[in-house]
């Protein structure tokens, strides 16, 4: 399919900017932070709670977005993208407010340590600690800890998938579902989409390697399932899964392959590819309105999975 016209305009506007693979960490973080200017105005939620959870290295930020209505609400633990190196609770705030209102759920946006200052396994240790904190504490804020999902985009999708694995392997929390938006799954993947979209599509293949190189210290096994969840020996028992990929992105095939593995293991799995779009548009629906198609898929999936009479309905 042709590139979406708004995406084409965005790529033309970005043409003069240095790609991630030749950026400093500070410049890459500034580039990601600039996505805020491409977002819709923030929607109001009933309540926002800024607090902390105890991670392995100390207290880390977590922000709860509480919707209107009477609880207890289902809960979405959201892990932001940014290649394990960039991103924060600010650039993902607009999205989280949309999800809280449209799903009717508390969205718990998790801050975690970033590479290269804190390499693997810091991010997964932090996000898994946050997931356990959410289970233990969200009732205080009107949440239902028995209806808990994990959600993330890009590197956050990786962290969500790894959190689901760890929850299964380490005695909980019990998860209703996981929603993964263009997740990066396999370091240095060798796939057709990586070759086809190697240059010119927001995150180049070399840019993806740049992020992985910062996240993984020398000597780290890229086949560790908490680095690459597709390398887990057993994927059975994981929660119903939605994976959304973009047609024009290097990580498309590795994400879709992971979805096929989950389905083969008996996990109720839905994989949806959106034609004409690229990596990153989940956060920037003012610049690329069709990014709302991703949001609609995620909202629909979460509502279905949280509804007691529709548990496990996605095929």
List the domain count as a whole number: 1
Provide the residue-averaged pLDDT.
94
Tell me, what is the CATH class? Alpha Beta
Tell me what the CATH architecture is. Answer: 3-Layer(aba) Sandwich
Question: How much is the radius of gyration in Å?
Answer: 18 Å
Q: Which stretches are poorly predicted, pLDDT < 50 over at least 5 residues?
A: 309-315
Shape: globular
The succession of helices and strands, N to C, reads HHEEEHEHEHEHHEHEH
For the largest beta-sheet, the strand count, sense and barrel status come to: 8 strands, mixed
Biggest sheet strand line-up: 1-2-4-3-5-6-7-8
Number of helical elements: 9
Terminal CA distance = 26 Å
Q: And the CATH topology? A: Rossmann fold
Approximately how much helix is present in the residues?
25-40%
CATH superfamily, called what? Alpha/Beta hydrolase fold, catalytic domain
Q: Quick one: how many beta strands?
A: 8
Strand content: 15-25%
Summarize the structure.
This protein is an alpha/beta fold. The chain is built from nine helices and eight strands. It has one domain: Rossmann fold (3-Layer(aba) Sandwich), CATH 3.40.50.1820.
Question: What layout of secondary structure does this protein have?
Answer:
Elements: H1 5-14, H2 25-33, E1 47-55, E2 58-66, E3 73-79, H3 93-104, E4 106-110, H4 122-137, E5 143-153, H5 155-169, E6 177-181, H6 192-196, H7 205-215, E7 241-248, H8 252-264, E8 269-278, H9 291-306
Parallel strand pairs: 3-4, 3-5, 5-6, 6-7, 7-8
Antiparallel strand pairs: 1-2, 2-4
Helix pairs in contact: 3-9, 4-5
